[in-house]
User: Fold ATP synthase subunit b from Flavobacterium ardleyense.
Amino acid sequence: MDKLINDFSYGLFFWQVIILAITILLLAKFAWKPILAALAAREEGIANALLAAENAKKDMQNLKADNEKLLAEARAERDLMMKEAREIKDAMIADAKSEAQAQGDKMIENAKAAIESEKNAAMAELKNQVSSLSLQIAEKLLREELSNKEAQTKLVEKMLGDAKLN
Assistant:
């Protein structure tokens, strides 16, 4: 440190102060304004970026709210469509049941009618067979009774007597 103090020169100091003052004046005249303008522009850009970020945040919140609203509307519409589909399904099932019931009733009625018809046909056939059998039996009995001349005469007299009474 001693060496620095011993080597101190007033002339060199004077010139260094002059050069520093000139440098400060040149910087003040030519460099400070652009530097300050750049700093102001940067500050304004940062402020604009923050404002834009805030606006973007608000827009995102609005979009999110709109999306939630649309999603709620879509869910409500889906629920309505599902309800309508269930109602249509229930109506179709009810219609199918009633139609099946009607067809079943119709088939039962047709079956009853067919059974009654078959029963009547069987009864008629049975009556025909019974009458045919009765005629055959009567014919055999009459032949047997009419084979004898005396029995034939008795039968004719009896029939004539019955005919007169009627």
In short: The chain has one domain: 12-165. The mean pLDDT is 88.
